[in-house]
Design brief:
about 160 residues, mainly alpha, three-stranded parallel β-sheet, about 40% helix
Length: about 160
């Protein structure tokens, strides 16, 4: 990989490797035996209180961004998350457009949160590849400014 390029490796990727290397016959079997709930390699996620998560991100020098929120999540959580130190909201992403995207962007503006975006790439075969979905840099000036303020700019 080129220097600085990130790659997401998820359970679907691991399942494909298990099939490729002959440990299982199918992705379904890989999840049933190893990767799914109850599988030998399954590790359940432990919930973390949002304040603890935001504090950990800040302690590491990062910016805390709410990823792929729905209108319901915005309505229920945005005010309290802002009070906990949330910095930004992901508004630009595949499968989010039109009125939903506008609503989330306006909420971010109202609560003085920067907007960012991403591919929502999780390693499933039906997703577009890395680099297919792009967020225009001009839409992300406040995000880059926040990174620069924390000394994290990649420029």
């Amino acid at each position: 990989l080129p220097r600085g390029e990130a790659v997401y490796v998820g359970r679907p990727d691991l399942a494909r490797l298990l099939v490729r290397d002959g440990f299982v016959r199918s992705i379904r079997e890989a999840f049933a035996r190893f990767l799914g709930s109850g599988g030998a390699a399954y590790v359940p996620m432990e919930p973390m209180h949002p304040r603890r998560c935001i504090d950990a991100i800040h302690a590491a020098g990062g910016v805390a961004v709410l990823a792929h929120p729905t209108i319901r999540i915005i309505d229920l959580w945005i005010k309290s998350l802002k009070g906990m130190g949330l910095d930004g909201v992901e508004t630009i992403r595949p499968f989010c457009s039109g009125n939903v995207q506008l609503y989330i962007e306006k909420a971010a503006e109202h609560f003085d949160l920067f907007v960012t975006g991403g591919s929502d790439l999780h390693g499933r075969e039906d997703e577009p590849g890395v680099g297919v979905f792009r967020v225009p840099r001009t839409r992300l000036r406040s995000f880059f400014d926040a990174l620069e303020n924390r000394g994290l700019s990649g420029d």
